[in-house]
């Protein structure tokens, strides 16, 4: 599989990401799965699902509002209800939502509207009309994520509500060639951010300054959204706090980072570890172990391998200082990437040993390992993103991580 690193512009003289194909192939895949299911339609409130179905986006500020909603009936085109003027914008600029299928409408906005305003009932009645027109009212309606009031209102209208998130996750787990291209481009942008961060790491720089540096690099390159930058240093490395602070880096400090951003909707999850100026033998040892665990997992990735085989090469929680696997969840970890940060497959000793899933060509996921050092505070954290090909996998996170990088070496 050829995975290209394109420029971020559209051009007439080179075949790059084909966005019309991207929209068409996503919707075709979902409609095929919907046709094979028991569902008459699927109703989406999750922004990633809405984007997959309707190819619309109104900014990441809307991601946690549960205000927009989109209906995809069997053998039909999606109908989109959107926030205020966004519907008018889509009527003008999104021809794939033609025929009056881009409409103004709002749900409960995470309970912001008082119950006596009857927003749940209004939403439910809109959906009922669409289902009745298509002869689907007696069929189960899949819903991805919704507030309880909306589910209750749908049931009051005589609609059978079932879990629709499983169908959406199934559709999104295998990526099209254009999705893979966008994921690769998103990772390439983080390559650049790590290069600039590596050059900037010195005594006195603070974790929050590192977050600002990375964010500027990514936005300058065309990032749609910097979801987060995990910046962890010094004695904060073990245990992993998963959030940056204003701590000032000092000579000899370990520092690891996770850069999470979105390019055209497609996400990264990309850890790297550095030391500032110098590193101790135990810090090198921790890094070597984390790298070894990661490389063993990558070597197993190919179609047909099950996820229990992958996580079996990772250490048990007790072997790196945790009482059980749930306490260490997310430290030796694999997760799908796409329009959301966590998609299928999920690879973890918590679930994969007893509920393995098959790895398939076209999956894109991140593999991440963590090893605390014996000094009691240092740790190493490394992550690679892989595309599953017919012959194995290809790593698309390219900032060097074979050995512990020492920034501004003394």
Can you walk me through this structure?
With 410 residues, this protein is of the alpha+beta class. Helix content is 32%, strand content 20%. The chain is built from ten helices and 16 strands. It has helices at residues 19-36, 47-54, 86-93, 119-133, 148-156, 165-172, 177-200, 207-221, 281-300, 307-311, and strands spanning 41-44, 69-73, 79-82, 102-104, 141-143, 161-163, 225-233, 254-263, 266-267, 270-276, 333-336, 343-347, 364-372, 379-388, 393-395, 406-407. The strands form three sheets. A six-stranded mixed beta sheet has the order 4-3-2-1-5-6, with helices on both faces. The radius of gyration is 23 Å and the shape is globular.
Task: Provide the fold topology.
Elements: H1 19-36, E1 41-44, H2 47-54, E2 69-73, E3 79-82, H3 86-93, E4 102-104, H4 119-133, E5 141-143, H5 148-156, E6 161-163, H6 165-172, H7 177-200, H8 207-221, E7 225-233, E8 254-263, E9 266-267, E10 270-276, H9 281-300, H10 307-311, E11 333-336, E12 343-347, E13 364-372, E14 379-388, E15 393-395, E16 406-407
Parallel strand pairs: 1-5, 3-4, 5-6, 10-16
Antiparallel strand pairs: 1-2, 2-3, 7-8, 8-9, 8-10, 11-12, 11-13, 13-14, 14-15
Quick overview of this protein structure:
With 410 residues, this protein is α+β, with helices and mostly antiparallel strands. It has 10 helices and 16 strands. The protein has a 6-stranded mixed β-sheet, with helices on both faces. Strands 7, 8, 9, 10 and 16 form a 5-stranded mixed β-sheet that branches.
């Amino acid at each position: 599989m050829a995975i290209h690193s394109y420029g971020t512009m559209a051009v007439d003289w080179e075949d790059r990401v084909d966005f019309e194909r991207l929209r068409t192939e996503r919707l075709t895949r979902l409609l095929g799965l919907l046709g094979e299911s028991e569902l008459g339609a699927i109703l989406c409130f999750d922004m990633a699902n809405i984007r997959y179905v309707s190819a619309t986006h109104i900014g990441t500020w809307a991601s946690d509002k549960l205000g927009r909603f989109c209906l995809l009936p069997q053998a039909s085109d999606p109908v989109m209800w959107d926030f205020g003027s966004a519907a008018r914008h889509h009527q003008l600029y999104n021809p794939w939502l033609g025929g009056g299928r881009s409409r103004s409408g709002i749900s409960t906005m995470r309970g912001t509207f008082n119950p006596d305003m009857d927003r749940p009932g209004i939403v439910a009645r809109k959906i009922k009309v669409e289902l009745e027109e298509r002869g689907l009212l007696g069929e189960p309606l899949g819903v991805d994520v919704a507030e309880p009031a909306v589910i209750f209102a749908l049931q009051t209208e005589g609609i059978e509500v079932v879990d629709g998130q499983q169908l959406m996750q199934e559709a999104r787990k295998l990526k099209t060639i254009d999705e893979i291209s966008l994921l690769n481009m998103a990772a390439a942008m983080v390559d650049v951010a790590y290069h600039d961060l590596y050059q900037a790491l010195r005594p006195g720089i603070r974790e929050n300054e590192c977050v600002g540096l990375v964010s500027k690099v990514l936005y300058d390159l065309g990032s749609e959204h910097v979801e987060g930058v995990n910046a962890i240093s010094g004695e904060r490395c073990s245990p992993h706090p998963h959030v940056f602070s204003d701590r000032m880096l000092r000579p000899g400090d370990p520092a690891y980072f996770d850069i999470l951003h979105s390019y055209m909707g497609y996400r990264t999850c990309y850890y790297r570890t550095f030391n500032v100026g110098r590193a101790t033998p135990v810090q090198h040892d921790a890094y070597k172990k984390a790298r070894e665990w990661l490389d063993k997992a990558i070597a197993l990735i190919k179609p047909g391998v099950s996820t229990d085989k992958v996580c079996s090469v990772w250490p048990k929680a007790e072997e790196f200082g945790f009482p059980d696997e749930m306490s260490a969840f997310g430290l030796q970890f694999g997760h799908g990437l796409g329009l959301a940060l966590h998609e299928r497959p999920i690879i973890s000793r918590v679930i994969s040993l007893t509920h393995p899933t098959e790895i398939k060509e076209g999956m894109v996921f991140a593999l991440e390992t963590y090893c605390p050092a014996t000094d009691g505070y240092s740790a190493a954290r490394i992550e690679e993103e892989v595309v599953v090909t017919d012959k194995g996998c290809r790593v698309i996170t390219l900032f060097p991580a074979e050995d512990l990088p020492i920034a501004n070496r003394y």
